Amino acid sequence: MRNGNHRLLIVEDDKLLREQLWWSLKKDYEVFQAGDRAAAIESVIKHQPDLILLDLHLPPDNNSEGGILLLKNIRRQAREAVIIVMTGDQKKESALRAMEEGAYDYFRKPVDLAELKMIIHRALEKLMIEKENRMLREKFHQENSYEGIIGVSKAMGKVFDSIRRVADSNATVILRGESGTGKDLVARAIHNTGPRKKKPFIAVQCSALPEHLIESELFGHEKGAFTGAVNDRAGRFEMAHQGTLFLDEIGTMSPAIQAKLLRILEQKEFLRLGAKEPVQVDVRLITATNEDLEARIREGKFREDLYFRVHVFPLHLPALRQRREDIPLLVKHFLKVFCDSHGVPGKGITADAMETLSNAPWPGNVRQLKNFVMTLVLTIDSERITSADLPTGHALPSSEAGQAFPAVTIDGLSLPEAVEQFEVQLLKDALQKTEGIKVEAAKLLGVDKNRMMYLCRKHHI
Fold first, then answer.
1. In this structure, are residues 9 and 47 in contact, taking their beta carbons and an 8 Å threshold?
2. Among the three residues 354, 369, 401, which one is the final residue of a domain in this structure?
3. What's 104's DSSP letter?
4. CATH number, domain with residue 92
5. Which of 123, 347, 309, 51 is nearest to 43 (CA)?
6. Does residue 67 form part of some domain?
7. Measured in Å, how far apart are the chain's first and last C-alpha atoms?
8. pLDDT category of residue 3 using cuts at 50, 70 and 90
9. pLDDT for residue 397
10. What's the pLDDT score for residue 230?
């Protein structure tokens, strides 16, 4: 009986050696042959072998450079295949380089069949173990995630439970939590698991839209409503008809837009800009904010009647520092995602490096962690990320990061006033460090550029 029906590909231009290997291995495996580079790629694509015996010296030039390029190409076509290099070189340089490029092992010609069989057996055992581990990881991921949101902590368990409770209803939901906690993912999860999942999901980042455009974006306009309105245009509410509209950063809306939003929620209709007849709309509304809406009501910046309309089912998303047990799972998930998407061999991470990441404060929450892991994938060549690979300074948040800013007294200030004063101080300090470059300051503070633009407008910086 064949050994687990494993498929092997022999890439060797020496026909006698190729046939010898084929006869030696065909009783235990399903074996294919290729005599040159083109045939090798064709066979890899067609048969997707589990293991490849690869001669580095193939025609037309018979040099190891061509063999290394072929190895890289094979690796792109069959990422899980085990590659064992065969070489007639007495020097180790080309074989060692092949292993750096992802080969599992190498041996020198002439071939010792007993040794080769042992190497193949060991390599395929490793392959099976890796597949089993991957299946276990995928099962673990499925059991500890919800609609792409990952978490094993009690805090995230409560979030998952809240999503399940509210998804089947039409209740208006408000997602509250710091920037970068995944409010957009939760909004999509509510939509995708509810009765409107086959209808549109329309997301609007309110803070990213200029004041003079937001009304047209939300409600649409008629032809001729203003200069440049050459055609009728549906707004986001119409696009979301019978589906879900997600308004992120709702606290940044102007009083005029708040009034129109309140009318839609009360009457289920609105007017396009320049229109005379109202448009009826059936929309499930989900909003999100990282601001203290109650404080904005006291300041006269947010309507209390709108607050009660949108605050029907509040769902709080915990900051990453409040769910540290999720960080290892998130790091491993992002490593896999970015290695796969960038065509990079899979990377692991040492326990000490993981501990460092788990203990960092991550003021930008999951978004900051995700971007940080992507940087590691793109800048570190080794298969395992160690503590020595982690950057220092502001690139890696540390428990002392907050001490770089001057202390802010709250004597005589309300909590919202103290928080706002500290926020201004953080912004000014970050902009000073980056010489006024807002994109860099946003990275330093762990927020995206849209949030940075909003904060600067908010505080007139």
1. yes
2. 401
3. -
4. 3.40.50.2300
5. 51
6. yes
7. 74
8. low
9. 56
10. 67
Better-predicted residue by pLDDT, 215 or 283: 283
Query: Would the pLDDT of 170 be above 50?
Result: yes
Residue 36 above 60 pLDDT?
A: yes
* Residue 388 included in any domain: yes
Range of the domain at 289: 169-316
| 258 vs 403, higher pLDDT | 258
Strands 145-146, 149-150: pairing kind:
antiparallel
Residues 385 and 390: their CA atoms lie apart, in Å, by 8
More confident residue, 411 or 52: 52
- Name the nearest CA neighbour of 233 among 249, 251, 220: 220
| CA 75/CA 82 separation, integer angstroms | 9
Cβ atoms of residues 111 and 21 within 8 Å: yes
pLDDT of residue 346: 85
What pLDDT, on the 0 to 100 scale, is given for residue 275?
Answer: 72
- pLDDT of 151 strictly over 60: yes
Structure tokens at 75: 């690796």
- Which pair of structure tokens corresponds to residue 331? 């790091």
On whether the CB atoms of residues 338 and 331 are closer than 8 A, the answer is: no
Distance CA 138, CA 140 (A): 5
Averaged pLDDT, 263-286: 87
* Closest CA relative to residue 240, chosen from 272, 285, 210: 285
* Contact indicator for 189, 231 with CB cutoff of 8 Å: no
Dihedral over Cα of 322, 328, 331, 334: its sign = negative
Q: Is the dihedral of CA 341, 155, 283, 211 positive or negative?
A: negative
Determine the 3-state secondary structure of 168 from DSSP: coil
The CA–CA distances, whole Å, from 222 to 225, 256, 275, 422 equal 5, 19, 6, 44
What local confidence, expressed as pLDDT, does residue 4 receive? 57
CB atoms within 10 A of CB 409: 9
- 375 occurs within a structural domain: yes
Helix (H, G, I), strand (E, B) or coil at 7: strand
Q: Is residue 1 part of a domain?
A: no
Strand pairing of 7-11 and 30-34? parallel
Q: Are residues 191 and 272 in the same domain?
A: yes
> How many domains is the chain built from?
4
